[in-house]
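Protein modeling request. Please complete all fields; requests missing the sequence field cannot be processed.
Requester role: graduate student
Desired output: 3D structure, token encoding
Chains: 1
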Amino acid sequence: MASNIGIDLGTTSVKIFMEGKGIVLTEPSAVAYNSDNQIVGIGKRAFDMLEKNPSEIRVVKPMVNGVVSDFTATGHLLRSFIARVCKNAIFKPNVVVCVPSTVTGLERRTILELATASGAARACLIEEPLAAGLGAGLGNDKPKGVMVVDIGGGTADIAVITMGCVSISRSVKSAGNALDEAIIRQLRRERDIIIGEKTAEMIKKRIGSAMLRDVELGMTIKGKNYITNMPGTFEVSSTETYLAMRPVLEQIIEGVRSVLEETTPDLAADILDSGIYLTGGTALLRSIDKMFSAKLNIKTKVAADPVNCVAMGTGEALGDIEILRHNGYVFKSRAELGGFEDSRGE
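Delivered output (346 residues):
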């Protein structure tokens, strides 16, 4: 029989859930090519080359803000990962792929065609905040509203879920990667320090906070002086990291406010009672739940396993296909999509 797998196709990483086995793969969203456009690395191998690759090797991040920016690289990524988890299976798998809540019809079709071209027998899409809610254990068929904010690498997907369906949703194109970029800009503008994406992410994880710390922390980093263009070591404080990230965090808060403003009064009352649930890798940022509570005056909780909520949610959907049907999602084969040439040009 064909296996059922769920794919969290994120901007920074790809996670694959296999029915009966759980999460079987977690790899960065990256593909490396040489000058002849031949693949020299996929996933972690490609990501390790980032910012250290020679000129003849090109490292591509195929997903930008949760949607496909490089069709060919995304096809190579999916084909490799699906083949890895399915191995020598006789039948092609049925695949559920997560997408941001506000992707266009064309983007949905593109991802479906990519999945079927990459080895899926049939493919279906599910919205990321709905999957995140299911993975956090918030799925139920009762008419009670709950708000989920899935803050990943490329997007913050905000949704109100009721009766196992998305009532209202919005996607903010500011999330974890935007926080890293804000740290890079701040250090270059205020301190004449040039750092890379990996160093910025390390700063965010080690001393970053969504609110000012009571006791300031510092850390030593390596980078380049913008004026002399020479390498060196520098001290970075938690306060300047917070100040750099604050505008991006405010954009996410404004996105949540806009969804709350459009929510019906009864659902808004439910949210006030049940609270806001944070999922996604950026939900691990220190004090982010306290910031939400302070800014919105609504109790906020971080899910038990925020990083894997979306991938686990695909497993919940695979275990109860009615969840997909209630939301208008159906599995489609390549023939039903009227597919086109795949990423190998076959």
